[in-house]
Design brief:
The protein is α+β, with helices and mostly antiparallel strands and 606 residues long. It is built from 14 helices and 28 strands.
Length: 606
């Protein structure tokens, strides 16, 4: 495969998602959930690991593609010598079973189209038994069953361990393919009308996007990011996965390949803030409720990530039969970082619940008692070293970001009691703790000679997470230490405005060989920090450049390689899109509220 990460578009039904390439091939799909085994895994291997391609016979990549405005419905078109054909891809919101709908439509001329379907369950390792039933193709292997049908009927046949179809369409003619999964021990679910599903999907997505309150510059990019965040939401529980994929490489050919199909607490405050500010209170409340359920229990057992329903066991294992994208191996399922100690997540949870209370989300009877339990644990545990925000595998250290978030936890607890004096809690103890943490960070986590906060106590290394210090209120934006930190990170971790998380060459810090690209969320944080420190023009120029890194359908991965000019890491990445939304709100939110920005046509500065 020569496909790049940015060659893919996303379709989904808020319970799982598929990646569709420019060549018309679905190369990644997990059924029935985001974290289930993949039945199409070509993106991490080859065609024998599962894919489904629909395209004009003999054609290569498409001529153009785009989402229908304000939806997750994808149109892909090919112009050929015989004419033009369009394939419309979507996953309608399911009643019971997940469906993939692919509608082929003739635009002009008369075009021969070919469909090639290779189902391979369990991450491309299990070939199903395929038979005919009632005019449909049925594939079964163990717990999985998939039905393929067409409307109107076209002939399918088996060849080279795949299911094939070939037909012609003229102008205005349509053929719909529907792929439906269900547990193999259950009867086939009711059939859906693919054309009605298309109409209702367009209508439902557009109704959802009308709730977006943002009317400032780059509105199209903001709406697309919010749609992506919605698509990465597991609707039954409200949990939001970090990405739809596993093991897309942070360095092409490297070993930094991780499973991101889980819900990270590190994302919680920024996610909640983005949803609330953009007008999505219902989704924000669902995420807050997922958070409360997931973290319930012994505060000492708080994890950095959980499964879609709050599952705690996410064991990491390698998939030896998949070669990895661009030879980037190993391919991993599960995530061993789930067992790490990261003190920053306590601050994230406290900050999220404080924000929820402040913005008027309905309170839960046990919410404050849970926060008190977290604070009681932190009072004795905050001095411990940990693995830090970035889940390093080089051993625990006294990471500055972790301590700043401990301060955030104490600060939000103090503020809550000050604003709600009737609540129980040890106000004096938490004030003392807040002051002690602040003093220690400023003494031990700050390099006075270089005027910058460092990655961990006693180090000379820098960490882009320090860009969040003014956002969290640890120090005011005009503090010389904040300005010095922003300038140092920009200088030493930046490349044409793109920011790396930290120096991967630093001996022993993250415990992994090789390097990685610039981290897109950190690059948006730099724009925020520049704005907060009075350099708004520079911030807006940087933001414009970052928005320009989205692919042709507006999606971002976790990282970007500024040298090779390509996206890296799992995709699409919720953290990147959350950061885009928050930075747009930071830079233009006041103007949009005052009606000073341009309208909802998406055209803004630049």
């Amino acid at each position: 495969m020569n496909a790049r990460i940015e060659d893919y578009a996303l379709i989904g039904d808020e319970q799982t998602a598929a990646l569709v390439g420019r060549d018309g091939s679905i190369d990644w799909l997990c059924l029935p959930r985001f974290d289930s085994g993949a039945c199409f895994a070509r993106i991490l291997g080859d065609e024998d690991n599962g894919h489904w391609r629909i395209a004009p016979k003999g054609a290569d990549v498409c001529t153009r593609r785009a989402y229908r405005s304000d939806t997750l419905v994808l149109d892909t078109e090919w112009e050929t010598a015989e004419g033009t054909v369009r394939v419309t891809d979507l996953m309608p919101q399911r009643e019971r079973a997940p469906d993939v709908v692919r509608i082929v439509e003739g635009v002009s001329g008369r075009v021969t189209v070919r469909s090639t379907l290779r189902l391979r369950f369990d991450y491309g390792s299990v070939m199903p038994w395929v038979r005919r039933a009632n005019g449909h193709r049925v594939a079964v292997a163990g717990p999985d069953s998939v039905w393929l049908r067409t409307e109107p009927h076209v002939r399918t046949w088996g060849e080279d361990f795949g299911t094939h179809a070939e037909f012609t369409v003229g102008e205005g003619e349509r053929v719909a393919f529907v792929l439906t999964w269900h547990p193999s021990h259950e009867p086939r679910p009711a059939l859906i009308d693919p054309y009605a599903a298309l109409s209702s999907s367009v209508r439902d997505w557009r109704r959802w996007t009308t709730r977006c309150r943002y009317r400032g510059p780059f509105r199209d990019a903001v709406v697309r990011s919010l749609l992506t965040l919605k698509a990465l939401t597991y609707r039954p529980t409200g949990g939001i996965v970090a990405a739809a994929t596993t093991s897309l490489p942070e360095e092409m050919g490297g070993v930094r390949n991780w499973d991101y199909r889980y819900c990270w607490l590190r994302d919680s405050t920024l996610t909640l803030g983005a949803l609330l500010a953009a007008g999505y209170e219902e989704e924000a409340e669902a995420w807050r409720d997922w958070l409360l359920r997931a973290v319930a229990g012994d505060p000492a057992d708080l994890q950095i990530m959980y499964g879609l329903g709050g599952e705690r066991r996410l064991p990491e294992w390698e998939v030896p039969w998949l070669s990895g994208m661009g030879g980037s191996s190993p391919v991993r399922v599960g995530n061993g970082a789930v067992d790490q100690l990261q003190l920053d997540v306590y601050g994230e949870v406290m900050d999220s619940l404080y924000l929820a209370r402040e913005t008027g989300l309905s309170t839960k009877p046990h919410m404050w008692s849970l926060q008190c339990a977290l604070m009681k644990f932190l009072e004795s545990a905050w001095r411990q070293p940990d693995e830090g925000l970035w889940e390093v595998r080089g051993g625990r250290r006294q990471f500055v970001h972790s301590k700043v978030l401990v301060w955030v936890a104490a600060d939000r607890a103090v503020r809550t009691l000050e604003q709600n004096p009737g609540l129980p809690g040890d106000l004096d103890a938490w004030r003392t703790m807040r002051d002690e943490v602040h003093r220690e960070v400023c003494e031990r986590g700050f390099d006075h000679r270089r005027n910058t906060f460092t990655q961990y106590y006693g180090s000379r290394e820098l960490d882009a997470s320090a860009l969040l210090i003014p956002r969290f209120g640890f120090l005011p934006p005009d503090d010389p230490r904040v300005i010095g930190t922003v300038d140092a990170i920009r200088s030493h971790l930046g490349h044409d405005g793109l920011v790396r998380r930290y120096d991967t060459d630093a001996v022993g810090v993250d415990g992994m060989p090789g390097g990685e690209g610039a981290f897109l969320a950190c690059s948006f944080w730099l724009a925020d920090a520049l704005h907060m420190t009075g350099r708004t023009a520079e911030a807006r120029k940087l933001f414009e450049g970052l928005v320009g890194l989205t692919n042709d359908v507006g999606l971002l991965a976790e990282e970007y390689d500024p040298v090779a000019g390509c996206q890296l890491g799992n995709y699409p990445q919720a953290f990147s899109h959350i950061a885009l939304v928050n930075t747009a709100l930071t830079l233009y939110g006041d103007e949009a509220a005052q009606g000073a920005a341009e309208g909802p046509d998406g055209q803004g500065a630049g």
